[in-house]
Request: fold
Amino acid sequence: MDNNILEKMFCNGQSDKLNTEQCLTSYYKTQGLNIFKSAELAQSNIVNFVEFINKSITDSQTQNIPYIFSFATKEIVIINNNYFKIKKIHSNLLKMDWRDFKHYSYPNVGI
Reply:
């Protein structure tokens, strides 16, 4: 599974809960497969997908990093709403100049 594709699919934040099969079908369609092949692959790989998601959730919790999903079963997957917020904060921190960081770190000091 490509996490970049999963991020593109859910970055707009339309829904928190999704049908697992529809989620997988969308994933395969995003990879460029036609709708029939996508649906076929989604049905055959649903158990592997749920195992992958649950392992990734466990790994992310162990490493204390966010993950796109917060819960997954054969019926539904739940999107972690905080994932994209944390990713944006991280991105902004990486782009921040040291002077800006110093300014925000010590707002009451006239440096």
